[in-house]
């Protein structure tokens, strides 16, 4: 027997059905196009009471290309760190230290910009933008590794080895040398100690500091020098590099 519909008072809303009562406990489905990379919708779709994790948008082009460091910024970082790498090949490497300090300031700017950019894009950015983000820290850390390794100094010596061999033989033969460039190495002074030739590379009036040293046939001079030196490196063929003075015993 069919139920007789009850009259509804004009001032009252109709009673909810069973399906409506069940659906009132959860918010309606979220609108399409929001989620990772899209704008957060207002409650009840987002926030503490909304869906988590938010649904991904349909496959297709990225919603936002994303902000990325401009080429000028990348070029400045590369220029500063290149100067530091080249300066690290000189014993008086204060310019290398200065370049690292400037690079750290660039890193602070990079971190702030990355935080702002990642909040705006939800990290959904193109591969080209990711590459531009990765270049500044990559250039910085590779440059610091090169500076710490001493490879720039070693490369400069190897490119100057033949010129230094000729200068050492000439100095032992009586040729007088002053300050100047021998190969790619700026020499402050050339000193002789028996058959040992010192090519001082530090601007030190006392004679102490860093030097490329060409030892002759005697081993006593080399043993004495090694005992008083620090940061020593053997290049083979009788050539050594080391520093004396502040860091020595």
Based on the model shown, name its key terms.
alpha+beta, two-stranded antiparallel sheet, 5-stranded antiparallel β-sheet, 249 residues, 7 strands
Helix content: 40-55%
**Largest sheet descriptor:** 5 strands, antiparallel
Structural class: alpha+beta
Number of strands: 7
What order do the SSEs take from the amino end to the carboxyl end, as H and E?
Answer: HHHHHEEEEEHEE
By oligomeric state, this entry counts as: single chain
Shape estimate: elongated
Radius of gyration from the CA trace?
Answer: 35 Å
What is the beta-strand fraction? 5-15%
Q: Which spans have pLDDT < 50 for at least 5 consecutive residues?
A: 33-43, 58-64
Describe this structure as you would to a colleague.
- Residues about 35-45 and about 60-65 have low confidence and may be disordered.
- Helix 2 packs antiparallel against helix 3.
- This protein is of the alpha+beta class.
- Among the domains are: about 70-150; about 150-245, no CATH class.
- It has six helices and seven strands, in the order H-H-H-H-H-E-E-E-E-E-H-E-E.
Describe the secondary-structure layout.
Blueprint: H1 18-23, H2 71-87, H3 94-121, H4 127-149, H5 151-172, E1 180-182, E2 185-187, E3 189-193, E4 196-200, E5 209-214, H6 220-227, E6 230-236, E7 239-244
Antiparallel strand pairs: 1-2, 3-4, 4-5, 5-7, 6-7
Helix pairs in contact: 2-3, 2-4, 3-4
Short note summarizing the structure:
The protein has 249 residues and is an alpha+beta fold. It is 42% helix and 14% strand.
């Amino acid at each position: 027997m069919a139920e007789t519909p009850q009259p509804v008072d004009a001032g009252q809303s109709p009673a909810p059905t069973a399906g409506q009562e069940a659906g009132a406990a959860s918010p309606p489905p979220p609108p399409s196009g929001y989620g990772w990379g899209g704008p957060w919708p207002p409650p009840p779709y987002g926030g503490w009471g909304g869906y988590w994790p938010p649904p991904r948008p349909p496959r297709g082009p990225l919603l936002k290309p994303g902000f990325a460091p401009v080429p000028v910024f990348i070029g400045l970082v590369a220029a500063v760190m290149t100067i530091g790498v080249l300066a690290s090949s000189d014993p008086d490497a204060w310019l290398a230290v200065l370049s690292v300090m400037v690079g750290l300031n660039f890193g602070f700017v990079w971190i702030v910009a990355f935080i702002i950019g990642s909040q705006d894009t939800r990290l959904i950015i193109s591969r080209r933008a990711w590459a531009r983000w990765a270049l500044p820290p990559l250039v910085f850390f590779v440059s610091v590794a090169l500076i710490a390794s001493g490879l720039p100094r070693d490369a400069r010596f190897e490119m100057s080895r033949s010129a230094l061999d000729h200068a050492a033989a000439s100095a032992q033969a009586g040729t007088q040398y002053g300050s100047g460039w021998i190969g790619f190495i700026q020499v402050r002074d050339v000193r002789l100690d028996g058959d040992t030739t010192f090519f001082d590379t530090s601007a030190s009036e006392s004679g102490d500091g860093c030097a490329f040293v060409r030892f002759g046939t005697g081993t006593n001079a080399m043993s004495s020098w090694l005992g008083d030196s620090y940061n020593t490196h053997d290049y083979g063929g009788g050539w050594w590099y080391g520093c004396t003075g502040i860091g020595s015993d």
